[in-house]
Amino acid sequence: MTKNIDLLIIGSGISGLSVYLEAKKKKINNILIIDKGFHVGGRICSKNLNNIYFNHGAPFISRSKIKKSLSFFNLLKHNKNISRTVIKNIRNKSQIVYYPSPMMRSFFEYFNKNLIIKQKTKAINVERDGNFFIVNCSDNKFIITKKIVLSVPAPQASELIKKINPQIVNEINKIKYSKCLAFLIAFDQKVDIPKYSFFEDDAGDLSTLFCGITFSNNQTNSVVVRMSNKWSEINFEYDKETLIRKCLLLLSKKITHFKKYNISSTYCHKWRYSQVINWLSPSIPNVNKDKSIGFAGDWTVGPTIEDAFISGEKVVKNLL
Ligand SMILES: Cc1cc2nc3c(=O)[nH]c(=O)nc-3n(C[C@H](O)[C@H](O)[C@H](O)COP(=O)(O)OP(=O)(O)OC[C@H]3O[C@@H](n4cnc5c(N)ncnc54)[C@H](O)[C@@H]3O)c2cc1C
Fold this sequence. Notes:
Helix content is 25%, strand content 30%. The chain is of the alpha+beta class. The two termini are 25 Å apart.
């Protein structure tokens, strides 16, 4: 049993980390973050497949021209792992993007030293006992906390909160996500495929293809293919082997010389909750009445990493 936590943050994605950083600014010291995954970062994630790193979640950090959050800008500026580059977006317009090296997950090395995070710890349910919350975790332990921030995707937040804050559940259940199927393909040699491009998939929709682990020139023996929302929606329930076959077939149709390369390994990741399509209306408060429960996450502000970061800043402002 862990006692006397002042603030429990459920979810170590970018929104959970933003909550942590903002709470620290308010001199809250007794903070714990828990996450069910193996690594910090949630959908900002990378996978090591036979010593090749792939970013199978968000491929880069995009920023709007209007600098929405100064703290986020400063994070990008001071994080030595982060570089910037210009890519053409889906409408062929140039767009500045930021990417941590050597992989997206490196973004979090910058914070790791000072954070207290319990990974591989899933919150199963949350109950209220007077002025405290009791959180039952997957390791059969309970965490007792004064305040709690749910920075998990909307469906998980709804599940955790349904008994103690049923009023907001209807609003949370309106949130919708796109599905995304991401494929990682490693070759036993360097491949000559456009570094970053869009192609029309079987569903007549644009998908993205990334060649190389990062945007640097020296790593081109890997490909990440991010299928479009439409293709992913249509094909989502197929087993992963079938999906990989379908993806490879599609690529060999699109890229004439694709077949000449030997593939050394493949992987398919299914994102059931990829990017939010709609988010909480600004008129819905992100904290409960007595300011003991708060909600953060992209689904409370908007579809980007920066929005998720801003959601953490917003909830701390109202909660603490
Ligand atoms: C394929 C893909 C491509 C994307 N492309 C871009 C892009 O180009 N640019 C961009 O800005 N954004 C992009 N995004 C979106 C961006 O990644 C997300 O908006 C952002 O990372 C969301 O952060 P978050 O903290 O809100 O949620 P998450 O990162 O999902 O973090 C939530 C965390 O909660 C944990 N969790 C869930 N349930 C529990 C539980 N019961 N107990 C404990 N822990 C729990 C999860 O393990 C996870 O770590 C993309 C996303 C995907 C998947």
